[in-house]
Amino acid sequence: MAAERREVPETTSQSPVTASRGSWIAVVVLCLGQLMLTLDATVANVALPAIQHELRFSQSSLAWVVNGYLITFGGLLLLAGRLGDLLGRRRVFLAGLGLFTLASLLCGLASSQELLIGARCLQGAAAAGDAAMILGILVTLFTDPRDTAKAVGIYTFVAVSGGTIGLLVGGALTQALSWHWIFFINLPIGIAVLVLGFRLIPEHVGSGLHHGVDVLGALFVTATPALAVYTVIQASDNGWSSIRTLSLGGATIGLAAVFILIEAYIRNPLVPLRIFRSRAVIGANLVRAFLTFGMFGVFFLGALYLQRVLHYGALETGFAFLPMTIVVAVFSLFVTRRVVARVGPRITLVTGTVLSAAGDLFFAHASVGGSYITTVLPVFLLIGAGGGLAFMPTISLAMSGANPGDSGLVSGLANVSSQIGAALGVAVLASLATTHTNVLLAQGHHADEALTSGYDLGFLIAGGCVAGAIVVAAAVLRASPVMPAGAGAAAVATSDAA
What is the reported pLDDT for 196? Predict the structure, then answer.
């Protein structure tokens, strides 16, 4: 086929100058694609109150604006990685990018809750295709290890700094224009990356679909957390002990059981169950799920507290989160590896989770009259330092229990556990905070007091969940001597930082 003739050979006769120039331009293209994903991970946070007001979301149903993206992103990451191997990484990357750009347009045009949530789910599915391919393409562009290291460093910087840019851009666009423009900003970037990607990213010929794709497993691994989130969100309206909630909870357990049966008997499973024989793999993924459960829930409720209680504007909220993203970036890029080298990943992980839990619990004392300096900033600094320290060592610990042939799968699973933990955290904390707020409002409490008390309950539960990560890290995980190398671990690390 014509596409096959563009496959990059292992050695090349191109002159170093020409090859270097084209490869570095391709790095820029890939980093622009990563910037889109990172922007979208944070840009919606500061716009949540505006979206809620215009489309009349309840506080609990507002969680779907975040979770529609997280669930499909996390649930389809492993399938996307497999499709890249079978169909070609360039092809899957460009298909995902085109779909992501289209979904961004639909998000920006959304005039109803259903359309926005559906478009966010589509964005997440497309983002999975992009995220699973970018670093795999990046590390094949150069033959010189020093150039590869520089390219990965640029990619990491973009992934980390993109979160900060997203907060500020999201706040500025929401305040100056409307929340719709936080999605429209993806359109020029997406079109430019598509055009340049077709021209500059080298083709990779996959092994073909005859090797098998576990589409059924991907369907169930996405549907199970989606139903779990729906169960939690509707519980705030129907009650946690209602027949509807209990029935949905039972159906969620049933879907999980079917997924396990599929993976146990299918010829090419998406998630071979053998990897769960490792105590380190199970423990590390539990820690990541607990951490993101608490951290993303705090991000969600924290943005609402800043705007609905402290009456911050969207741009002010973006600046308010800025110290946390900077601290995460500094620790992820410069501090954590040095700390791990000195004291080991297990102690580093426990230290990070303690700091994150302390931040969550401190936030649980937020009041109607709280100030940024005394109430919010200490929390964001603690969570930023804790997250920056905690996430990367989980990869080292998980890899220590994985066979070499499963390293890519284990690193991908680490990303999935983070996304699913985050989605459940947002759903559970939003639902419980809403239920508590509604009870106080019915008792005649002032709206600000009721909202703050609901947020405080969410922060308290988040802190307790992160404390669960401390217990797992201390009791289950054993020390691992070094941080893992390779594209899989690097992709997870930059995803965590973002």
Answer: 86
CA–CA separation, 487 vs 138, rounded Å? 9
Residues in the chain: 498
Q: What was the pLDDT predicted at 484?
A: 45
Which residues lie closer than 8 Å to 57 by C-beta, 6 or more apart? 51, 65, 113
Q: Is 202 left (phi over 0), alpha (psi -120 to 50) or beta?
A: beta
Q: Is the dihedral of CA 27, 30, 36, 39 positive or negative?
A: negative
Rounded Cα distance between 6 and 90, Å, is 11
Write down the pLDDT at residue 403. Answer: 66
State how far the alpha carbon of 433 is from the alpha carbons of 8, 46, 455, in Å: 53, 19, 6
Sign of CA dihedral 218, 219, 224, 229: positive
SS3 state of residue 139: coil
Q: Quick one: angle between helices 145-176 and 487-497, nearest 10?
A: 20
What's residue 14's pLDDT?
40
Rounded-to-integer distance, Cα 402 and Cα 279, Å: 10
Say whether 203 sits in a helix, a strand or coil: strand
479 phi/psi in degrees, rounded to 5? -70, 150
Q: Which DSSP category does 485 fall into?
A: P
**Residue where the block lists tokens 């609901």:** 454
Q: Give residues with Cβ within 8 angstroms of 111, minimum separation 6.
A: 55
pLDDT of 244: 86
For the chain, residues with pLDDT lower than 50 are 1-19, 480-489, 491, 493-494, 497-498
Helix/strand/coil for 7: strand
Query: In Å, what is the CA distance from 407 to each residue of 60, 119, 157, 360, 490?
Result: 37, 32, 24, 32, 12
Q: Number of H helices and number of E strands within the chain?
A: 18, 0
What is the tens place of the pLDDT at every residue in 151-186? 776 776 777 666 667 777 778 888 888 889 888 988
